[in-house]
């Protein structure tokens, strides 16, 4: 019975993938998928990456239409960097709780309290918030960006865990917002200790969005892209992975003979998983939902993103 259901599902997915290929041609569209998307979405993607790589790809593509399979702020970054393209998202409900933990009013109030500080925003922020910041960063370039900023006082939004991690690499005063990623923050020391006991030969690779005490346990700490690269190039054959479960798709693709154990079964971002193949078909057929960023917000947010791109 279960085998029959699986067969039916596979057949459905085959049909949906064929339809997506046809629609992509008709609309001159490209599909960009974040590493945390469902496997079947990553399979149909023209390009897979983290939020920064995908935004860069959006800016450089010749396609007229971008289907952005990720969460809302990522679609916004794509639209900001590619304002003349149509940016579609398969499901409007795909938001990021961490990005929603900071808003413009709160940030303005903090800026007032610290008038000499420069605002560094993790790319996981809304376009509105980006437009109130001096420079953006990603988990891959955060330390370089902070060092490059022309101030010894930094307001950091929104992730307190990543903020804590980067603060260890700078002498600058960091005023850290109290946001966090619901998914990465769930991983505990106990989870990792249990996994290490179960897989003593595995290295623990961890994203700095996890809690500081968990990050401290890492054999390697880095962004999702850095973790993927590290696991691909490492001589080690077995890893305990401390980032979102969808990363397994690229890890297994790159290193089919290595073993990957996710540090808990809770490392799943429900927001990333609301997209599916049916919704990709529908958004291409109906040309919606589309991402819209008001031009006055986009211009200021773009300046913050472009300052980041200039940091070498
Ligand atoms: S994994 Fe965390 S930071 Fe990424 S989209 Fe989900 S909630 Fe936001």
UniProtKB/TrEMBL annotation:
<dbReference type="GO" id="GO:0051539">
    <property type="term" value="F:4 iron, 4 sulfur cluster binding"/>
</dbReference>
<dbReference type="GO" id="GO:0008987">
    <property type="term" value="F:quinolinate synthetase A activity"/>
</dbReference>
<feature type="binding site">
    <location>
        <position position="139"/>
    </location>
    <ligand>
        <name>iminosuccinate</name>
    </ligand>
</feature>
<dbReference type="GO" id="GO:0005737">
    <property type="term" value="C:cytoplasm"/>
</dbReference>
<comment type="similarity">
    <text>Belongs to the quinolinate synthase family. Type 2 subfamily.</text>
</comment>
<dbReference type="GO" id="GO:0046872">
    <property type="term" value="F:metal ion binding"/>
</dbReference>
<feature type="binding site">
    <location>
        <begin position="122"/>
        <end position="124"/>
    </location>
    <ligand>
        <name>iminosuccinate</name>
    </ligand>
</feature>
<feature type="binding site">
    <location>
        <position position="224"/>
    </location>
    <ligand>
        <name>iminosuccinate</name>
    </ligand>
</feature>
<comment type="pathway">
    <text>Cofactor biosynthesis; NAD(+) biosynthesis; quinolinate from iminoaspartate: step 1/1.</text>
</comment>
<feature type="binding site">
    <location>
        <position position="181"/>
    </location>
    <ligand>
        <name>[4Fe-4S] cluster</name>
    </ligand>
</feature>
<dbReference type="InterPro" id="IPR023066">
    <property type="entry name" value="Quinolinate_synth_type2"/>
</dbReference>
<feature type="binding site">
    <location>
        <position position="34"/>
    </location>
    <ligand>
        <name>iminosuccinate</name>
    </ligand>
</feature>
<protein>
    <recommendedName>
        <fullName>Quinolinate synthase</fullName>
        <ecNumber>2.5.1.72</ecNumber>
    </recommendedName>
</protein>
<feature type="binding site">
    <location>
        <position position="96"/>
    </location>
    <ligand>
        <name>[4Fe-4S] cluster</name>
    </ligand>
</feature>
<dbReference type="InterPro" id="IPR003473">
    <property type="entry name" value="NadA"/>
</dbReference>
<keyword id="KW-0411">Iron-sulfur</keyword>
<dbReference type="GO" id="GO:0034628">
    <property type="term" value="P:'de novo' NAD+ biosynthetic process from L-aspartate"/>
</dbReference>
<keyword id="KW-0175">Coiled coil</keyword>
<keyword id="KW-0004">4Fe-4S</keyword>
<keyword id="KW-0408">Iron</keyword>
<keyword id="KW-0479">Metal-binding</keyword>
<dbReference type="Pfam" id="PF02445">
    <property type="entry name" value="NadA"/>
</dbReference>
<keyword id="KW-0662">Pyridine nucleotide biosynthesis</keyword>
<keyword id="KW-0963">Cytoplasm</keyword>
<feature type="binding site">
    <location>
        <begin position="207"/>
        <end position="209"/>
    </location>
    <ligand>
        <name>iminosuccinate</name>
    </ligand>
</feature>
<keyword id="KW-0808">Transferase</keyword>
<comment type="function">
    <text>Catalyzes the condensation of iminoaspartate with dihydroxyacetone phosphate to form quinolinate.</text>
</comment>
<feature type="coiled-coil region">
    <location>
        <begin position="6"/>
        <end position="33"/>
    </location>
</feature>
<feature type="binding site">
    <location>
        <position position="269"/>
    </location>
    <ligand>
        <name>[4Fe-4S] cluster</name>
    </ligand>
</feature>
<feature type="binding site">
    <location>
        <position position="51"/>
    </location>
    <ligand>
        <name>iminosuccinate</name>
    </ligand>
</feature>
């Amino acid at each position: 019975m279960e085998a029959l259901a699986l067969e039916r599902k596979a057949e459905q997915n085959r049909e949906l993938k064929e339809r997506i290929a046809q629609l992509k041609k008709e609309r001159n569209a490209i599909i960009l998928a974040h590493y945390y998307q469902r496997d079947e979405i990553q399979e149909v993607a023209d390009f897979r990456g983290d939020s920064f790589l995908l935004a860069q790809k959006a800016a450089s593509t010749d396609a007229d239409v971008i289907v952005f399979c990720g969460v809302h702020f990522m679609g916004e970054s794509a639209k900001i960097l590619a304002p003349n393209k149509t940016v579609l998202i398969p499901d409007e409900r795909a938001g990021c709780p961490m990005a929603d933990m900071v808003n413009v009013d709160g940030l303005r109030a903090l800026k007032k309290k610290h008038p000499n500080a420069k605002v560094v925003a993790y790319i996981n922020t809304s376009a509105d918030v980006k437009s109130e910041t001096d420079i953006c960063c990603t988990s891959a370039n955060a330390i370089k960006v902070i060092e490059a900023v022309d101030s010894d006082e930094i307001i950091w939004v929104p992730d307190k865990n990543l903020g804590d991690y980067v603060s260890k690499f700078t002498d600058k005063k960091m005023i850290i917002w109290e946001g966090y990623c619901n998914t990465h923050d769930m991983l505990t020391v106990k989870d990792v200790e249990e996994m290490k006991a179960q897989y003593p030969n595995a290295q623990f690779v961890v994203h700095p969005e996890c809690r500081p005490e968990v990050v401290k346990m890492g054999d390697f700490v880095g962004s999702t892209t850095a973790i993927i690269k590290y696991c691909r190039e490492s001589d080690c054959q077995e890893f305990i992975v401390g980032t979102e479960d969808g990363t397994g798709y690229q890890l297994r693709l790159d290193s089919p003979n290595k073993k990957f154990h996710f540090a808990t079964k809770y490392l799943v971002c429900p927001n990333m998983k609301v997209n599916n193949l049916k919704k990709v078909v529908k958004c291409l057929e109906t040309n919606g939902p589309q991402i819209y960023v008001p031009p006055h917000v986009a211009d200021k947010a773009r300046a913050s993103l472009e300052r980041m791109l200039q940091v070498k």
